[in-house]
Amino acid sequence: MKQSDRISTLLGDGDDGWGIFLKAREMIAAGSDVVELTIGEHDIRTHPDILDAMNKAAIAGHTGYAEVPGIMTLRQAVAARVQARTGVPTTADNVMITPGGQSALFSAHHAVCDDGDTALYIDPYYATYPATLRAVGAIPQTIPAHAHDNFQPRASEIAKHAKGAKSLLINSPNNPTGVLYSRATLAGIADVCRTHDLWLISDEVYDTQIWQGEHISPRALPDMADRTLVVGSMSKSYAMTGSRIGWIVAPEAVIANLINLATHTTYGVPGFIQDAALFALEQGAPLEAEIAAPFARRREIAMDVLAGQNVVKHVPCMGAMYLMLDIRATGLSGEGFADALLDVEHIATMPGESFGQSAAGHLRVAMTVEDEAFREALERLVEFAKGLVG
Were both Cys, which of 135, 219, 275, 351 would link to 335 (CB 3.0–4.6 Å)? Predict the structure, then answer.
């Protein structure tokens, strides 16, 4: 029996670029000690108060079917949060709760792309982006952002591919680079979207992890609210990765159709998880800052370790929980360096090539282990690179 072309070609011509991660997990399963600096998973767990709220909601009986678009109080809380941060009028009718940010990305592209439509996205990109676009029947098209521009995408590059395209997906603060898109970058992106009548899908799941500069949601730029869908999540801001809860903020007509999609796919998010998310949002900025604090510290540790040498260079880390390191001075590709580093030093990182060709010769390092272990691992990485150059 033949499977569908859509499912059998989901990954395109290659794999999902996670070979080093899987190799590291195999080494751990075999008994080796490996420092994992691969995936964006907090080294602290969900806050006990959030788990207590989740437990109380479950015990109280909120375990049946919940409202498909999300419970009204949570949608209102998300709307209030977005409006307070962006100044854009936002109501519950602009919000749908989703089973995590990944589901939101999938749903958002379903909302704006038909089969065969070209969907643009920036390279380097989060690893799931191309397959997500294929899954909705769109044709993925990358737009390169370059290391010499600190991976700020150029409007002129986007415009080259915009004619006839349907949507553009961006991510700031950015995974994998840690770059925060500047106001000028976002203004250029908005101009291309307006000129070429593109839908803009803005992945903003790292909006509480800002180390330098300001986070600007493109939905707040002139004439962009009616063509922008914003993806948000509790995963990174509240260390609720396993709870699988996020949202889409979009024009009311888009949300109405997305509710129909959710009715026929996910059928919503468990009510007790939504109650816990509502509790977390009600704690506001202090809890978000507590969750973000370890990554802010480790960024400073990284700047200290990387100072005074020029073998391992870093892309300006302005947000998110990652460093993008340039190891081209070693003469190795990102994949070659990451593989050798894992074999020799038992330190697992993600090759830049896992996130597109624009990041070739780079590594993504997740700042997701305890401070001193992170410092030691980064020092060993730098010494390993120096040894290759020597």
Answer: 351
Tell me if 50 is assigned to some domain: no
Residue ending a domain, choose from 283, 302, 336: 283
For 378, the domain range is: 5-45+286-385
Query: The domain spanning residue 319 has which CATH number?
Result: 3.90.1150.10
Asked if residue 295 lies in contact with residue 144, where contact means CB atoms within 8 angstroms, the answer is no
Q: Summarize the confidence of residues 244-270 as an average pLDDT.
A: 98
pLDDT of residue 309: 95
> 153 lies in a domain?
yes
CA distances from 225 to 87, 200, 201 (A): 11, 10, 11
Are both 272 and 210 inside the same structural domain?
Answer: yes
pLDDT tier at 17 (50, 70, 90 boundaries)?
A: low
- The pLDDT score that the predictor gives to residue 390 is 75
The per-residue pLDDT for range 155-171, each reduced to its tens digit, is 999 999 999 999 999 99
Do residue 41 and residue 89 come from a single domain? no
Give me the helices (H) in 166-309, please. 183-196, 252-263, 271-283, 285-306
What are phi and psi for residue 127, nearest 5 degrees? -60, -25
Do 175 and 41 lie in one domain? The reply is no
Domain of 261: which CATH number? 3.40.640.10
Tens of pLDDT, residue by residue over 193-227, are 999 999 999 999 999 999 999 999 999 999 999 99
The domain boundary, picked from 255, 283, 311, lies at 283
pLDDT of residue 48: 97
CA dihedral (331, 336, 340, 342) in degrees, to 10, reads 130
pLDDT in the model for residue 9: 86
**Tokens standing for 319?**
């947000």
Residue with tokens 């190795």: 332
- The residue length of the chain stands at 390
Q: Does residue 51 lie within any of the structural domains?
A: no
- Which parts of 150-243 fold into alpha helices (H)? 155-162, 183-196
Residues 298, 366: one domain?
yes
**Joined tokens for residue 274:** 């939504």
Peptide bond just before 316 cis, omega within 30 deg: no
Q: What is the rounded distance in angstroms from the CA atom of residue 192 to the CA atom of residue 196?
A: 6
Closest CA to 39 of 159, 127, 113: 127
